[in-house]
Design goal:
The chain is α/β, with parallel strands linked by helices. It folds into five domains: 20-218, no CATH class; 227-385, P-loop containing nucleotide triphosphate hydrolases (Rossmann fold, 3-Layer(aba) Sandwich); 391-474, no CATH class; 493-661, P-loop containing nucleotide triphosphate hydrolases (Rossmann fold, 3-Layer(aba) Sandwich), CATH 3.40.50; 666-760, Helicase, Ruva Protein, domain 3. It holds the Pfam family AAA.
Length: 764
Amino acid sequence: MTAPSPTCPDEVTGPAAPTAADWLLARLALIEARVRRAIAVRTGDETAAGPGGFPGPAEAPFDPFQGLYISDDAAPHLLDAPTGPLPPDPAESRLAAALRTHEEAAVAAGAAPPLLRLAQEFGLGPLDVDILLIALAPDTDARFERCYGYLNDDITCRHATTGLALALCGVPSASATARRVFSPDGPLRAGGLLEDGDTARPYLTRMLRVPDRVTAHLLGHDALPAGLHTAVTLPRPAPQAPLTGDSPLAATARRLASLLTRHRLAHLRDGPGAAADSVAETALAAVGRPALRLDLAALSGEPRAQTEAQTEAVVRAAVLEARLRGCGLLVGPVGSVAPAVGSSADVRRLRGLLAPLADLPLPVVFTGPEPWDAHWMPTPPVLIECPPLTEPDRAALWRHELRALTGPAAGTHEAVADGIGAATADRIDEAAAAGARYRIAPHRIPAVAASACRQADADGTPVGPAAVHAAARSWNGSALGRLARRVRPAVSWPDLVLPERPYEQLRGLARRIRHRDQVLGRWGMRPGGGRGRGVTALFSGASGTGKTFAAEVVAADLGLDLYVVDLATVVDKYIGETEKNLERIFTEADAVNAVLLFDEADAVFGKRTATQDAHDRYANTGTSYLLQRLESFDGLALLTTNMHANIDAAFLRRLDLVVHFPAPDEAQRRALWDRCLGPGVPRAADLDEAALAALAGAFDLPGGAIRCCAVTAAYRAAADDRPLSTADLLAAVREEYAKLGRYVDESRFPAAIQPMQAAQAVPQ
């Protein structure tokens, strides 16, 4: 090794602030000086050893192959080799003191070296720091490898050993106090900063190794390790808008922050809206700890072969990452690994995952919708309930993100007073209101808002409600889309033809969804008994009267997607499977602010019957489950049926609204014929107002059948490349009557249609 130059970084007078690597290399220069003195002692070079060194025995000269073999001549002198710790050196002490002075100046200037921050975070003493530096020296400078091999008297052992580390630190190897530094409960090993070697070897020859992540951190490289990408989320460089004001969420964040100053573990049970993560991030930021999130759902999705050892290693690595960065841990959802009612194997697995978090000297907040189970952890956390996230809360988060993404003060009403665009401020508010309709977790809103801005930029338009709707729909409901068929509404209230009473009932249904946060939340009119905040309605009526169409209109008015549950994928012949399928649908729908439509609901919401055999008992069990699950549902569920009498009476009591869809009268049939033909369909001269009125009076058809007739007639006209005529509609009506098994008495056709019929001679 060349002559050491243990210079000190000068952050005061230097041209640039020292980097993390500069601070570490300055410390390692002192370790290099110790290694030089140790080699001098071993070789017997009294001059090179310095005033504190001592020579080796003259009868054992330096051998360049030392460590590879033991000769017969050297064997009698093995116990004559110098032992004991390396004596201190005054020059080295002066350099160390100068370096400490510079480090203290850096701390005072707010730029503490990473090694000092690490020592404070992990509670390391001076001896712990020296041993850590000795162990990581070969990872930063390959020259130390051969030196350590020589000093270990084993050229294959190129790492620092327990005995060599103690000797270089000037500590006797027989010191019980010094040996506690390497114990499993010491700060180095318990914190994951030091890995001990093969325990089968003698204590003093066990190799020491520093994890690569620790070395990289001390060198200033803080990229997240590849093994943590799926389960760990780092704090955002620009944190989300803190929860402030007098809202229940802000009050919960302040209470949690106060508790974290006295208790290290807390469980924040999530409420409707999934706001627990944002509340926990705000509370951790208030105590000076950015939140590093550990996603247990990602860990529970791994194959079982990886969950025992590798998953626990991911948890330990996440803990190390949080401590290196000075973060607090946000862990959840806890119930995704072992629900409150789970198997004993799941509970044991969760205990194994949470065990490394029990005694950490940093705040840990668990989140999840499940109540805390005492079996999950030997040390119970402080339990806190997170209030629901309301639509105004989501609107405020959306507004904050959109303002930040569209330029400084671009969307603030405060900026309007200073002459900055009122139109931009209004557009941002409209977009925020559109985004607030979607039940997206607050920690995901920044990503969805960024996606909306990118989509608007690609379309060449300013970000507005349309871009927000498109982005939210692409992020929202992907899991529910695998369980139900998604329908993107493309209709509106003018397309709906109904009598006044059901029409107003549907308007009232939309009002319930829009204002439920105000009525059930701020006004406190939420019913007891564990009922959710959802809205459930039943649409009953004959086939084709517009029940499914009305559900699409309501979804379009609310700006939400419609998910039609396919009963073929829900009902299962095996006992209990139908309930499991429905639970998955309700769980996903709770997380997605969408309209859930159970078409032909009497198939699963039918009446309970007297128990005659096991089939009846389990069928009644499924119905009872649905009765309970509907009460705790937080979304919008619509049920349609053609047989109202078959719906269980207990369901009717739990419904917020029952809308009956009658068969259309003549005036409504006239309007339906006109709407079903549409403005873009070319019409022949004979297809005028009188003809449509005659069709409506002559044929008693519901809206669905009228729609089928219009489509069938359009295909006939398109095949001949001509406008749609009355004859085409008459032929389509005959086909529809035949399909429905109804008789067509053409002698009773109105006089306005009979001449047209005879003149055009439409074939049967």
